[in-house]
Automatic annotation (TrEMBL):
Protein name: Regulatory LuxR family protein
Organism listed in the record: Chromatocurvus halotolerans
Top-level taxon in the UniProt lineage: Bacteria
GO molecular function, one term: DNA binding
GO BP annotations, alphabetical order: regulation of DNA-templated transcription
PROSITE patterns in UniProt: HTH_LUXR_2
InterPro entries for the chain: Sig_transdc_resp-reg_C-effctor (IPR016032), Tscrpt_reg_LuxR_C (IPR000792), WalR-like (IPR039420), WH-like_DNA-bd_sf (IPR036388)
């Protein structure tokens, strides 16, 4: 690493401190991811930071899920970027295709700056740059991706940081710091940090919904849950329906299938 690219010791300490702060929200994936993104923005000077899962990248069934964003200026920018991620990025975007081609099927962490992947002139002539990136006032980019363990198609956990176009390139140490944080994240998640969509993820659940979910996962009937919690069956059914909506399912069977990769139900107890 060149002297210019070497981060200051205090920035390395900030990176580890950020990971420690994320652990304070370990069971709520929305909370720790939001804190991670704002921390990375402050650390690197990014205007926009995104967390997302890219499922089956570069295939005909590629899709983006579990997206969280920080830093878009207004709803128009956010809607434009959502359209780009959902329908455009995987088609012929030079950066997207170049990045995930180089990442391959490896489980190793890959962190790249924009012009490590594409030539500046080709990128700035591209439709994707003009219609989406420049239209949102964004310029330089750092992307970091890691394959998550999954029984299904390849799933890449991806962090993306965008510099405001008026701020020029990222400082030289920024890529190293992003890689350092993502590597630290990989050591924590699934063990100490809850991944979004897993059984342990309590993001958006009220304490009562968590108690009802614990009963569903333990095989209790709604009548048994109502008796245990001292609630009416009608009230329990209302909470059950809210749990289903939260996980975007319509039945207990689909709920169990969606959360099949999680651990034990004891971590679901409200604190």
């Amino acid at each position: 690493m060149s002297r210019r690219a070497r981060p200051r010791l205090r920035d390395v300490r900030r990176a580890y401190h950020l990971l420690g702060e994320c652990l304070e929200h370990r069971e709520d994936s929305t909370a720790w991811r939001a804190h991670l993104l704002t921390g990375l923005q402050a650390m690197t000077g990014a205007r926009v930071a995104l967390y997302l899962h890219v499922d089956a990248p570069l295939s005909a069934v590629e899709q983006v899920s579990e997206t969280l964003a920080s830093g878009f200026l207004d709803a128009r920018e956010q809607a434009l970027w959502a359209h780009y991620q959902a329908t455009e990025a995987h088609r012929d975007d030079l950066f997207h295709r170049g990045f995930y081609t180089r990442a391959g099927g490896s489980s190793r962490l890959v962190t790249r700056s924009l012009y490590d992947v594409v030539e500046r002139s080709a990128w700035q002539r591209s439709r994707h740059y003009g219609d989406y990136v420049a239209a949102c006032g964004l310029g330089d980019r750092i992307t970091s991706s890691l394959s998550l363990p999954t029984a299904g198609p390849r799933c890449e956990q991806t962090l993306v940081l965008h510099r405001d176009a008026g701020d020029g390139a990222f400082p030289a140490p920024a890529r190293y710091l992003v890689r350092l944080v993502h590597h630290g994240l990989s050591e924590l998640q699934g063990r100490l940090l809850t991944l979004p969509g897993t059984r342990e993820d309590l993001a958006g659940l009220t304490p009562r919904m968590r108690e009802v979910l614990m009963g569903l996962l333990a095989g209790e009937s709604e009548k048994q849950i109502a008796s245990r919690l001292g609630l009416s069956r009608h009230t329990v059914n209302r909470h059950v329906q809210r749990v289903y909506r939260h996980y975007d399912v319509t039945s207990r069977g689909r709920l169990l299938a969606k959360l099949r990769s999680g651990g034990g139900v004891q971590s679901l107890s409200p604190r």
